[in-house]
Write a structure and sequence with these properties.
By secondary structure, the chain is α/β, with parallel strands linked by helices. It contains 15 helices and 5 strands. Strands 2-1-3-4-5 form a 5-stranded parallel β-sheet, with helices on both faces. Helix 12 links the parallel strand 4 and strand 5. The relative contact order is 0.15.
Amino acid sequence: METGTENKVNRETGGGDFTVGAGQAALRTIAFLALFLAMLLPVSYMVRTNGDVKDRFAGFYAEKKDSLDVVMIGSSPVFPYYAAPKLWGETGIAMYPLSTNVQRPAAMRYLMEEAEKTQSPALYIFEMRMFTMDEAGLMENMAYTRGVTDNLKYSPQRIRTIRGLVPEDDEEGRLSYYIDIMKYHTNWKMLALPSEWANMFYCHSHPLKGYTFRDEVGPQPMPACGGMEGVLAISEEQEAYLHDLLACLKENGQEALFIVSPYGESPEEQQMFNYMARIVEESGYAFLNMNDYYEEIGIVFEEDFADYGSHTNAVGAEKCTDFLREYLAEHYTIPDHRGDASYESWDEAYKLWQTRQNEAVETIRERIANKEYAQREE
C-alpha cells in the first residue's frame, strides 16, 4: 500500500511539473512573439521607401487627436496645390493632406476611415481628378495601391484597406501587402539614415503639415474647355466607388466638399467632371471644379505650373490656396484656432512656409525671366 501511495504521489507530482513546464513554455513563446513584433514593426516602418509620401503620412499620425479641422484626400494635385501652413496662418484652420501619387479613387473611403481613428474633422475634401481614369489601367501598376497601403500604420483598418484594394488573385499575393517588409527587406541601408530613426513609430511632425514646395516652371496655354457644358460618363468602377464613398459619408453624417484642381484638362475630362458633379450634388454635397474659375483664381498657365499644366508651382499653389480659403469662408463655419497654445507647431509651420515661399517665388521669377523651363517627362 505504501509503495502504491508513493507511486500515486509521484505520478501526481510529475503531472504537476509537466503542466507548470508547459505553461512556462507558452509564456516564453508569447514573450518571444511579443518581442519579435515589437522589433519587427519599427524596422518595417524604417525600411519602407523614404520620400514625401512617407513623411506626409508619418506627419499625419503625429497630429494631436481631434485637432484637424479639414482632411484633404486625393492624388498628387493635393499636396503641391494647397499650402496648409498658409491656410492656417490666415484663417486658423488646421488642414492636412492624406495624399499619394496616382491615388486610386477606391482608396478614398479607406483613407477617410483611417483618418477617423484619430481625428474628427469638420470637413473632408476629396480631389476628383483620378475619377477620370480607368480602374483597370490603375491596377496594372500596383505601386499606385502600395502608395496607400505601405504608408499606413499596422492595424485592422490597414488590413481592411488591403482587402479592399488588392485582388485575391494578385500575383504578388496579399501577404506581401500585409507584411510589407517582405517587399522592402533589401532596404537595410535605410537603417543607417538618421532621418529614418524618426520613423520607428511612424509618427513624427511634418514641418510644412504635408505641403510640398515646387519651384519649377513648365508653361502651357490655358485650356479652352473650362466651363464647357455636356456630360460624359465615367467608368462603371469609378462611379461605383463614388457612390460608395457618398453612402459612407451620409451614413456617418460627415460633411464633404468635392473639388477639381485647375490643370490642363481636356474637353472630355471637363464633361466627366460635369457628370460627377451631378452625382455629388444630387447626394447633397458641393462640387467645386476650379477649372471653371481661372479668372477668379488668377491662374496663369504659362507661369504658375511646375510641369506643363499638371501640377502648380509655389506661385500657383498660393493662388489656389487663396481661392479655397475664400470658398471655405463663404460656405462653411470652421473655428479659428490661432492663439491656442496647443497649435504651436502650426504657427511654426506658417513661419517656415513664409520663408520658403519667398525663396520659391524668387526662383520662379528668375526661371521665367531666363526661360529656364522644367524638363518634360517622356
